[in-house]
Amino acid sequence: MDPVSQVIMNPPDMSIQHLVAQADPVVKSVMALLVIFSFWCWAIIAEKLIEVSKAVKAIAAIEALLMTKDVQGLISHDGPHPIVGVLQAGTQEWRDGPGEHKDEIAAEARERIERAMRLEFSIEMRRLQKRLPFLATVGSSGPFIGLFGTVYGIMNSFAGIAAAHDTSLAVVAPGIAEALLATAIGLVAAIPAVMAYNKFATDLGALGGRVSTAIGMYGGLISKQPLPGKG
Question: For site-directed labelling of 158, which of 23, 25, 33, 40 has its Cα 20 to 30 A away?
Answer without folding.
Answer: 33
